[in-house]
Amino acid sequence: MPLLPIDKHRKTGAKPMLFSCVSAGEAFRSLFRKALQRIKTIQLQAFVLLFFGCSEKSDFTSSLECKFQAKDLASFVEIPAGLISDRLGNSLEVPKFLLQKTEVTNAQFSIFVSETGYVTEAETDAVKGDASSGSALFLLPESEEKNSSGRPAGRGVWTLSTDATWRSPYGPNSTLEGLKHHPVVHVTFSDALAYAEWAGGRLPTEMEWEYAANLGLPYPNDQDSGAYDEIGRPIANTWQGIFPIFNTLDDRFMETSPVGCFPMDRNGAFDLIGNVWEWTSTATDSKTRVIKGGSFLCANNFCKRYKPIARQFHESDFSTNHIGFRLVKTITDHKTQ
Ligand SMILES: [Ca+2]
Ligand SMILES: [Ca+2]
């Protein structure tokens, strides 16, 4: 039996019928989530969710309305100077800098491409027809319906697709329709650098990103507080449920969400935590960079790397459908660069 009513709402705009563990109210959900997290095996978690925790739900939490406003696009917030501990435990001073409020969107990247003629690495690979090249695409678990793009559903696995590019984020025959304000994906580190140079910004260092994300947490001493509120409600786009088997969609979004749909952090920025991983300029070796923040695929049972302190290494020339980026700008006296 299919487990997921996949995101029909993306096409229709209608509120989705969700299978969600909230039927007895928020307090119950919090207790249920904690109990579920104590159950060690994925199979048993799935059994408990299916038979005790999930009910059909036609109305979604009204507190999670999209906060996106067009003026936030390409706008920045100032992050004050401060100290952070580096990986060796040394205190590192982070000068003040400007942080882009949102992840770079498809609309923004489209302007860059139209003005420069830039071709991303994934697109170049596709032209070459190299079977070993392409961009990584996560195939969603089987569902009753294919999503609006008609992309194939899988069993919650990764595949390599030469047809998955920033223009076709869901793979073959998909388009950017309805995704204008979603973060651009299928971009490599070089693609992000090219955009940054054109836009007059740069990519953050790992420490800058982590410092800003820590400052933005609702509770500075709680690394989970950027993803879930006090009673366990999602406040960032991650994966609720058992990854990669099914997603309860407590946060509404199976994949990327439009930027700014979750609460603003204490810096005035959006989606540092979750939605898409974000490239940083910090290299771990000649071929990899650090990415930060986790994505819509981060679940408590598998990946909790939505914590600001968490880090992931990723090949610089390899793109996926859950990695994007945002820009920062250096503040030098009264000038920015
Ligand atoms: Ca989600
Ligand atoms: Ca993010």
Q: Give a quick account of the main beta sheet: strands, pairing sense, barrel closure.
A: 4 strands, antiparallel
Strand content: 15-25%
CATH class of the largest domain: Alpha Beta
**Radius of gyration from the alpha-carbon trace, in angstroms:** 19 Å
Runs in which pLDDT lies below 50 for 5 or more consecutive residues are 1-65, 144-149
Bound molecules: calcium ion
Domain tally: 2
Described by its quaternary structure, the protein is single chain
What class do helices, strands and sheet pairing give? alpha+beta
Architecture of the largest domain, CATH level 2? Alpha-Beta Complex
In helices, the fraction of residues equals 10-25%
Number of strands: 16
Distance between the termini: 55 Å
Question: What is the CATH topology classification name of the largest domain?
Answer: paralog of FGE (formylglycine-generating enzyme)
Strand order of the largest sheet: 3-6-15-16
What does this structure look like?
With 337 residues, the chain is an alpha+beta fold. It folds into two domains: 19-54; 59-336, Alpha-Beta Complex (paralog of FGE (formylglycine-generating enzyme)), CATH 3.90.1580.10. It is built from seven helices and 16 strands. It has a four-stranded antiparallel sheet with strand order 3-6-15-16, with no helix packed on it. It has a four-stranded mixed sheet with strand order 13-12-11-14. A two-stranded antiparallel ribbon has the order 1-2. A hairpin with a 5-residue loop joins strand 4 (82-85) and strand 5. The protein is globular, with a radius of gyration of 19 Å. The relative contact order is 0.18. The model is unreliable at 1-65 and 144-149 (pLDDT under 50). Bound molecules: calcium ion (2 copies). One calcium ion (CA) binds next to loops.
